[in-house]
Every structure is written in structure tokens, then in C-alpha cells.
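Schema walk-through. Below, the input block comes first and the output block second. Nothing else is stored per chain. Lengths vary across the set, and this one has 352 residues.
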Amino acid sequence: MNAEHGHPARQTLDAELAALAQAAGRLPDSGLAVESKVLAALRISNVLQQVIRALDEDPYPPLLAEVRRQTRFLLALDPAALADEPAAGAGGGDPVARTRRLYEDAWTVYDEATYRHSVDLILARLRANGYDEAFFAGKDCFDGGCGTARFAVAMALLGARRAVGADMGGRSLEFARAMMERLGVRNVELVETDVTDLSAFADGSFDFVVSNGVLHHALETERGIREHFRLVRRGGLFWLYLYGAGSLYWHVYDALKQTLAAVDSDRARRILLDLDLRQGAIYTYLDNVLAPVRKYYYADDVVALLRQEGDLEYGLLRGTAAYDDAVLQRQSRWGREILGEQGEVRLWIKKA
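--- output ---
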């Protein structure tokens, strides 16, 4: 969970987010009221995306202004005039099934051009850390929670001998197979499985294991971390990305998630598609606003957990921009406020 934070503006923002939730709560979870709530959260999400790209600037003035603006917008609406269909009732149900459905909805908004661009971003991140063609040549690689297999495809393109992508989302994997066929990628194997139980794979099966922004959405995150590390060969590497604890960024998104708790992810997806948004923006919204499960960690605690499994070396992963770079997150003026005292958990871990 997020740690308590002492910045006085955080308390003011919390009060404004509570007012936003109250304004949303007076509206039905049906009809145009749902679109209004989705649009209000979208405007705030857009400001959060600006905030995370400006880690040297005070995040509170733009966030406070936008939350207040959207609260006024929702208060101006007439609840009786907006309900014209039954509520979807998306707030309950199995969180694992809801997570699977959400990410199948989110990943499959990509067309081929957007998918290729997303693979290029992964390639750039890998190269920024020295993981290039010379590194991957002949290696066996594993991408846990692969979604549409962007990471697995990137490693294959860099010369991996074999890349395995594992995910619980069957529709995401079907999408991945179609994209791999178009890209001519042949050395990626896709497996449908729970990535917190990798018992189908033997200890030390892979030279390079990736869990990139996945396990913080799992019910058994720590088990999943251990399972991925178990697959790493001695001398091999584990690339791990988890959300950081104490983050203002995720604190606001959690408030938005509670405000939209009854909104079905498919309904939100259709609303966003009708707005003709950039496909990556639709994915970001679904991922950040509607994910049913989201947990937060300190890098030190994750390292301590893995030290129980054996000796290791580790370091912070670099990125292509400050918001994507664990070192720059900690060094920037407002990075520790926006993304937590230790920033996001972005680690390379070498098994001794």
C-alpha cells in the first residue's frame, strides 16, 4: 500500500478527490452519466501524464485545478436526465477474471503500426541498459505476463535463440500471434498460464527473465516474483518492474479507480474509442484507471525478498526519459514526491 505522506498539498488534494468522488456518486452508473464520469477521469489522467513527464515541476497546482474543474462539471449534471439504460454492475466479481478481461480489452486496441511502435519502445529500453544484439545472441528468454508479447518479440528481434511469452489472456495471445505473423517472428513461443505459478518450467531454464509491469496486478505478487527469479539461470538476469510505494501519481489513479468502480472496462473502452483517442492513450487509461488489483513496493523490500532465494547483484534500470528511468526519478526535483521515495521498482537482478 502507499505510505503516509506528509506534504501539505497532498492533504488538500485528498479533500478535492473526495469531493470529486461525492460528485460522481450522485450520478447513476448508467447512460450518459457513465460517459461523463469516464470523461472526467480522462481529463485528470491527461494531467497526470503531463505531471509524470515533468518531474522537476510542482505537480500539485495542475492536479488541484483539474480535479476541481471536473468536480464542478459533474456537479452541474442532472442525475435524472442522464440515466437511460441499466447499470452494468462491473464493480463486483472475480478480480482475476476482471483483470484478464480488462487487459484483453486494453491490449487489443492496438493496430499494427501502434504495436510496432510499442515494440520499438521496448527495444530502446533494452538498448539503454546495454541489452543489445550482442547480449541476446543465443540466449533463452522468458516474458512473464507478456500481454501481446511485445517484450518477447523485441528479444527475438535482438537475436534471442528462443523467447517464451506467458500470459493468462487468451485473446491477447491470439492478437500476439497475428502480429508476430505479420512481423515474420518465428522464434517466440506463447503459453497461456498463471504467471504466479510457473511450475511447468524447470529451475534455471532461462538466461533472461522479464516481468515488466505485471506482477503488481496479481493477487500473489511475492509468489510471482520468486517464481520468475527461480527460472533464471546462474549468471542470468531478471528484469523487474513494479509500481513504487508512496507515489502521488498512483495515489490519484487509485482515487479515480474508486470513483469509477462500477464502470465496466468494455464500456469505458467503447467510450474512449468513440473519442478517436490515440490507441496508446486508451491503453494507458484502461490500465491506470480501471485495473482491479494494484499493489506498491519499495525496491529495497523486493531485493530483500529475493535475497532469501540466494545471492544476487542488482542495479537500477535506465530508460529513454526521466519518467522511465529509475535513476533520474530519484534525482529529479519532484520525482520522489510524484513516484515515491525510491521511485518505481525498475531493477536488473543478476543471479550469482
